[in-house]
Known about the structure:
By secondary structure, the protein is mostly helical. 58% of the residues lie in helices and 0% in strands. Mean pLDDT is 82; it is low at 1-41, 334-397 and 610-620. Belongs to the STRIP family.
Amino acid sequence: MEVGGNGGALVVNNKQRAMLPNKSRGEFTRNQRKDSEGLSESPDLEFEYADTDKWAAELSELYSYTEGPEFSLNRKCFEEEFRTHVCDKKWTELDAPHHRAHAMRMLDGLEVTAREKRLKVARAILYMVQGTFGECSSEAEVQHWMRYNTFLLLEAGTFSALVELLNMEIDNSAACSSAVRKPAISLADSTDLRVLLNIMYLMVETIQQDDPADMAEWRVIRETFRAELGSPLYNNEPIAVMLFGMVTKFCSGHAPHFPMKKVLLLLWKSILFTLGGFEQLQTIKVHKREKLGLPPLPEDSIRVVRSMRAASPPASASDLIEQQQKRARREHKALIKQDNLDAFNEKDPYKTDDPREDEDDNDDNDNSIEAETFPLERDEVMPPPIPHPPSERVSFPKGLPWAPKVREKDIENFLESSRSKFIGYTLGCDTDTVVGLPRPIHESIKTLKQHKYVSIAEIQIAREEEFQKTPLSGGEEEVEMCATELLYQGILPTLPQYMIALLKILLAAAPTSKAKTDSINILADVLPEEMPTTVLQSMKLGVDVNRHKEIIVKAISAILLLLLKHFKLNHIYQFEYMAQHLVFANCIPLILKFFNQNIMSYITAKNSKMLSPPPPTLNNNQFCWRNLFSCINLLRILNKLTKWKHSRTMMLVVFKSAPILKRALKVKQAMMQLYVLKLLKVQTKYLGRQWRKSNMKTMSAIYQKVRHRLNDDWAYGNDLDARPWDFQAEECALRANIERFNSRRYDKNQSNPDFLPVDNCLQSVLGQRVDLPEDFQMNYDLWLEREVFSKPISWEELLQ
């Protein structure tokens, strides 16, 4: 008998256990577990989902291994510059005034006209934000000086100077045209850009780390810097908009030398720092619900997900075929053994002693009811059960992890169907009148209303409808100019191009993508000037390239997820605008293509080696943190795009996503499994009865782990939800709502002329200056003669 997917083990009764030889009981337990887990004995992955990996790991991912020699070059540039002013002391031995004085000298050095001198000073500054590691003896000391130097440089105004230099490099047409003409681009083509982006990334990454030991002055600097990054202070736009511009310029082919990994990492960390991570999102959501007068959230989703345990993955097709063969052999042998039961189970002397058959006989499968043949006859001859130590047992959950939710629309549909069934009339959106309905229906409505959940999005949609209905009497909408709103306003004009560019890079970095001549080259900041000549160098470069692609996937998945979640909280139509352009740019099949690989191999990939400095990080776990993080992010994006969208759910069905997603369940990590099960749940009713019948273990896991929507018939199909797939109609209706929202809130120049005030004063209308074209002025006399003097005018009628 199968029990819901938490433990995934099978129930073995005492009678079956008593029939086992003592020596094979442990073997039986192992085989039993092997079958129930689909021949996957891997333990649960000790992975804790967070905004970022550990600080040291995030710092090391900024660099490629081919950049290793540049660390000593940065140190050399700093020491040469430092020794011209201070001869007898190290940087770590100076006091604060001398530190500030040298930081100001470095800032002045960034403003010189000679490019070589500027680059040398920039390398010296990079060595400072790397923690002046040459003078430190431990990793903790390096991190201390990183933090100190970063705040010192930020206070001196270095970041603004770096943004100006970055703008100069972006607009450097000579470098762009040179890179376009080159057949092969290498690290040397992006040296200036890489140094600037390295400094900016390290500053943002260091400052966003909240250290309780920070001085009060540093806390003020940190909050000021956060506000400046998110506001249009740099080049009249948030820093993220400038970086998005770099991404689109790179994808258009006009700047193939841009170091895209560093740009994407800086873009991700600047969005994360200015808008906030997942903990901040939860806090903002709670405050918004309080402000709108909505009841509090039924549970903290972050805490619930972290407390969940992974389910055993379902068996693969080959495992199921093997189990069926074993089952057939067992049933055949059971019939033969039945003749010998009268001899009280004495061993047949003519039977061949094959240990493999014993093993097969002792093995079990996912359906222990079928395995137990002729139970009545067995009860007569089985010896009493032998006491034994308890083996792995299924731990039943005390309750489901999520509180059920019901939408207002669900209650309306339930009442409409009940009224039409019992009374024969409907009342539209009335959810209070229950006259004429039987008592059980009253109880059902009471239960539904107890679990009714009103989302922030529903309130926002209702308010937007009111603004559209009453544009004059509705009043002015108060828009809170938070960092999310400023970012949306900045990227609104070219958001479709930004989404296409990010997905192009994601496609190029996906491990399932094949090299094509027309695809973009994302390896400009990893390939060395001289290609490897030995096998060892080639292997190292291969590891570097794979790691480079993994980091790009990690950054893009985090950027898209953060933007979707923040836009959804700020206004639902901002989220829908971005989501719709992702769908139009084929994001759904792209993510499915990404998962159409051996996902266990991807998650356990070891494309890392020691790199020093910065502080070395070596992942000794059984999985790669960044790859598992990327997979969860992509699954969450797919959930965001398809939730409550029938046409997009049907896209999952049409693209045959079920077997791809089911393979992803082999990763024993609770959070990843949760989002896979959510995606399977929304399409279950369209996959057919046979699929549900042969995937009962997956259905059990969905029931146990995914939130229940009361009245949601996800486990079977009916006529209501088997409606035709009209993709265009749904998307066009949504697009019309989005365009009306964007036009009303942001398009102030092209307002509706019907709603503009009318000037009824004759003097002011006649007093307006009208600029006439030159040809009219030249022929003015002719016009007067033809239109005025030659036509009779009844002045009395005109004035009346």
